[in-house]
Structures are given as structure tokens and as C-alpha cells.
């Protein structure tokens, strides 16, 4: 993974220590944070799916 070519500069030592800042931080306006999702997906009715057990 460390030898993979990335388009963004990355400090792997900071990344390993979980100190790296993300390149994009979404603006959250409420507890749900749905502003960043398309209404095509947020307006669909909720469906419960069965467990795999």
C-alpha cells in the first residue's frame, strides 16, 4: 500500500498515528447530516432488511 501512487500528497507517519487531516470535511447542519446526500436517496421509503442469521 505504501508504494501505491497517489495523486494527493500524504504523510504516512501522520496517517498511521491517525493525525492526518482529511482533504474534505462536510458541513453538518443537524444531527442527521443528510444535506450532503442527494434527495433521490433521502426521499425513498425506509425498508427493513432481514438479518443473515
UniProtKB/TrEMBL annotation:
Positions of the AGC-kinase C-terminal domain: 8-53
A UniProt-annotated Pfam family: Pkinase_C
Keywords: ATP-binding, Kinase, Nucleotide-binding, Serine/threonine-protein kinase, Transferase
Keyword ATP-binding in record: yes
GO MF assignments: ATP binding; protein serine/threonine kinase activity
PROSITE patterns: AGC_KINASE_CTER (PS51285)
Protein name: Protein kinase C zeta type
Protein species of origin: Cricetulus griseus
